[in-house]
Amino acid sequence: MRYSVPLWAASTLVVFATLVLLSYVTALVLYVGAAAIAGFLSDQLIKLAVNLAPRRLLPGLRERAVFITGCSSGFGLQLAKRLDALGVTVYAGLRKPHSTGALELKATCSNNLHIVVIDVTKDEDVENAVKYVNKTIGDKVFWAVVNNAGVSALGDVELTPFSVFSHLMETNALGCVRVTKAFLPLLRESKGRVVCVGSISGLFAFPGLTHYAMSKHALTAFADGLRRELRKWSVSVHVVDPHMYQTGMTNEMSSIKRLKENWETCNEKTLTDYGPDFFKKYTENARYIARLSRGSLAVPLDDIMDAILGETPQVVADAYFGGLCDFVVLRLGDGVCFVSTGVCHSISSVDDWRGFLLVRSSLLSCDLLDLVVGWIKDRFLWSHYCIVVEVAGPKKGFILFVFLSGTLVVVSPGIVPRLQDIAWYPMASKRVSSLVQGESTQLPNPSARHKDVEPIDAALFTICSKISM
């Protein structure tokens, strides 16, 4: 091959065409980036507007009746008391009529609250509940059914008996179907509402909660399809997804008891393969979850109240993760080699990595935006987290992740050998450096409290991360 004018002309044409195409690609990348930024900002602004706007309730509350399952504790108990205080006729469903929750409702609520004994897994109980409502409702309008009853479990799939899977599905998913179907004739007549208390596990299956996530995914799918089916009857369906609140599901002693019962059902080979340290670490996780769970139920209760009686309720109210960007991040985890669970330590690979959320920081000013977070009731709309992951192995060092409202927006440009080298990020450097004590390669205990860390609403979360080198 030798140089020639035709070859030069052809080569010039090819290079020119390539450069033209690259110019379009560059513009396309810029447009896509601008669209992504616009979408993210819109997501944040809408969430801010929705949560700052006053919530207005429907008129005629004293003429409405609501049926709630799972009222012996947690959300159901507090919701029944709130609705009763507003003058709504409340049918508080629970399994044990002499439970602490039932006695509390009888002692503190008005005669407009009715205790209804119901096990959502039993057809007869549900049928009797419908008969009781029809008999006692009088001229009130049956406005809503709230599917709040639920149970939880913790543990790997292999270590959990099948009966636990069956019980979770029967209570959390099929119980919701059973109760909703029974009350649909009354709801169609009143053009009322169906409210389902789900979970963020209905969007993402966290390790150790696969069985629970199955039931909540089923509940979410049921509500999603039912919403479309009931549109022709003007009956609306709403889902509220709380995450990490102090209820019976996150109770430390109950979780450890269930773990022990499941562990004892395993055969000897399974117990030997996993080893006693595995069970010990899982019990530590159960205690950690209990410590992380927020004590105030105000945020999810506000969302549930809005779903029942609000003039303009949302179809899905997250009570923790809010909006499209946060939903996408849950799906993004596997693609960027880590999953943010906020629930469990990684047990199988604990020697390969350690990830701890050190501190909550703020986008512009710690003081200013922490106030904003307080105004919007701990919804984390404009707060972000600095996550430092320590990487062991041939490439030792640290990686910084920064989340804005649950969305990954900043990552350090590689592994840095010392924690102090992360100080290039000015918003994080002050608080990160204030938390680090002792050797530069040591991270604080994830359960340790520090004077610069706010309680509860800025509680330390575990990041279940796996970094592939």
Automatic annotation (TrEMBL):
<dbReference type="GO" id="GO:0008202">
    <property type="term" value="P:steroid metabolic process"/>
</dbReference>
<dbReference type="InterPro" id="IPR002347">
    <property type="entry name" value="SDR_fam"/>
</dbReference>
<feature type="domain" description="Ketoreductase">
    <location>
        <begin position="64"/>
        <end position="243"/>
    </location>
</feature>
<keyword id="KW-0560">Oxidoreductase</keyword>
<dbReference type="InterPro" id="IPR020904">
    <property type="entry name" value="Sc_DH/Rdtase_CS"/>
</dbReference>
<dbReference type="Pfam" id="PF00106">
    <property type="entry name" value="adh_short"/>
</dbReference>
<dbReference type="InterPro" id="IPR057326">
    <property type="entry name" value="KR_dom"/>
</dbReference>
<dbReference type="InterPro" id="IPR036291">
    <property type="entry name" value="NAD(P)-bd_dom_sf"/>
</dbReference>
<protein>
    <recommendedName>
        <fullName>Ketoreductase domain-containing protein</fullName>
    </recommendedName>
</protein>
<dbReference type="GO" id="GO:0016491">
    <property type="term" value="F:oxidoreductase activity"/>
</dbReference>
